[in-house]
Amino acid sequence: MKERHLEGYKKFKKEYFKDNKKLFDELALGQQPHSMIITCSDSRVSPVKILSATPGELFIARNIGNIVPPYDQTQGATQSAIEYAVNVLHVESLIILGHSACGACEHLYHEKTEDEKHIELSHVDDWLKLAYPAKHNSILECLNNPQKDRAEVTEKNNIQLSIQRLMTYPYVVEALEKGTMEIHGWWYNIGTGALEVYDYGDKKFRAI
Ligand SMILES: [Zn+2]
């Protein structure tokens, strides 16, 4: 264990854990999170911090680019997490949390340079193919619109794509129809801390 890990753990155990012992006693018996968050693996995005949440509140699935694969296309961790959150935990909200300066979205446009040719990224490249529709929509959206920030447009289209993909999951649609669960798309600006929420009505992100 590295010193920085040990120091961090000691501080947690001595302070946060000790101060919240009652909460941890309850959590030891089980979890009842109110929301599932699908977000990027990016180290700068912390849903727990952003929402001032405590352990036990958020069921979080992270992957490169906060991508939701189509229901029937691939098998994997994200699908399993969605299935468990909706069918077993019965979360009230399912949130796709994307962010600014997303390396995954940037990678969609990146051509390997000579110096980078030896770096293996075959799994990353394969995974990010799932986000191509967001890239293609963004190229169209930015065409003849030089004032648009292509990176931000792609990040936001990618959030919308994940929401659309959620609609290929039969039990997600069922929960929405029954009104037992809501779906939201959020874009978080790392530098300013601003959070923008996707509005289905006019298909725009709005600052809150
Ligand atoms: Zn990212």
What do these coordinates show?
- The protein is α/β, with parallel strands linked by helices and 208 residues long.
- The chain has two domains: 30 residues; 177 residues, Beta-carbonic Anhydrase, Chain A (3-Layer(aba) Sandwich).
- The protein is built from nine helices and six strands, in the order ααβαβαβαααααβββ.
- The chain has a six-stranded mixed β-sheet, covered by helices on one side.
- A hairpin with a 6-residue loop joins β4 and β5.
- α7 packs across α8.
- The relative contact order is 0.14.
- Zinc ion binds next to α5.
Strand and helix map with partners:
Blueprint lengths: L2 H17 L1 H7 L7 E6 L6 H4 L7 E6 L13 H11 L5 E7 L3 H5 L14 H7 L3 H11 L7 H17 L3 H9 L3 E7 L6 E5 L4 E4 L1
Parallel strand pairs: 1-2, 1-3, 3-4
Antiparallel strand pairs: 4-5, 5-6
The structure holds zinc ion.
Distinct small-molecule ligands in the complex: zinc ion
Assembly form of the protein = single chain
Give the CATH superfamily of the largest domain: Carbonic anhydrase
Count up the domains. Answer: 2
Helix content: 40-55%
Strand content: 15-25%
Number of strands: 6
